[in-house]
Design goal:
The chain is α+β, with helices and mostly antiparallel strands. The chain has a single domain, classed as Hypothetical Cytosolic Protein, Chain: A, CATH 3.30.1230. 17% of the residues lie in helices and 16% in strands. Strands 1-3-2 form a 3-stranded antiparallel β-sheet. The longest helix has 11 residues. The protein is globular, with a radius of gyration of 13 Å. The termini are far apart.
Length: 96
């Protein structure tokens, strides 16, 4: 992590994970626990985390997705949808 507390740049998907079956107890893919918060870019940590669940309509509907933000960042989001649109667009672009 840099001096400013920003998450390190990683290759691959660092923002969201998914489950392929409703009976799964572990995700098919889980992003790093210290993933960057989509709101502020700083690494998410256990003391301030919120997990957001969503499903993509259409071809990706077989999977359920999730992503993490800082709880304090999500609490300031007046729309109540956190970064859902940003993450859904990323899923579509990545073909996950």
């Amino acid at each position: 992590m840099s001096e400013a507390g920003l998450a390190e740049v990683r290759t691959g998907n660092a923002f969201y994970g998914w489950l392929d079956d409703p009976t799964q107890t572990e995700p098919s893919y889980e992003p790093p626990r210290d993933t960057p918060c989509p709101f502020c870019g700083h690494a998410v940590h256990a003391d301030d985390v919120s997990t957001h669940s969503l499903m993509y309509r259409g071809q990706y509907a077989a999977r359920s997705y999730f992503y993490r933000t800082h709880r304090t960042c999500a609490d300031r989001d007046e729309t109540g949808t956190a970064m859902d649109g940003f993450i859904l667009n990323m899923i579509a672009r990545n073909g996950d």
